[in-house]
Amino acid sequence: MQSVPYTRKSVGLFNMMSQYISDLRADKPSCLVFRYVAKTMNAPKLIAAMITLLAYVCWWQWISQFPLQLTSDDALNFARGVQRFSVLEFRPHFPGYPAFIGVAHIAARWCDPQVAVIWVSLISAMLIPLAVARLIFLCVSSLVAAVVGCLLVLSQPLLASIALSGLSDATAILFTLLSLMAASQKQYRWVGVWLGLMLATRPSYFVLALGVGMFPWWHGLHRQLGVKAVVKAYFQASWIIAVIGALSLGFIWAHDGKAYIDEGIRFTQGHFAIWGNTVEGNDATLWQWVIAISNGMGWPVLVAAFLSLLSSVFLVFFQSAKHGASSVHRVNSVSQLAACASVAVAYWTWISLGQNPDNLRHWAPVLFLFLVVIVGQLSWLAKSNELWLVAIMVLAGYDVGRNVAALAQSRLQPQAPIQQAITWIRKHPQIRVIGTNYSVNLVRAQLKGRAVYDMFYPSSQRALSEQAQSDPHSAWRLSGIRLNGHELYAQFPPRFVGERGLYLYQINQ
Question: What mean pLDDT comes out for the span 205-222?
Answer without folding.
Answer: 88
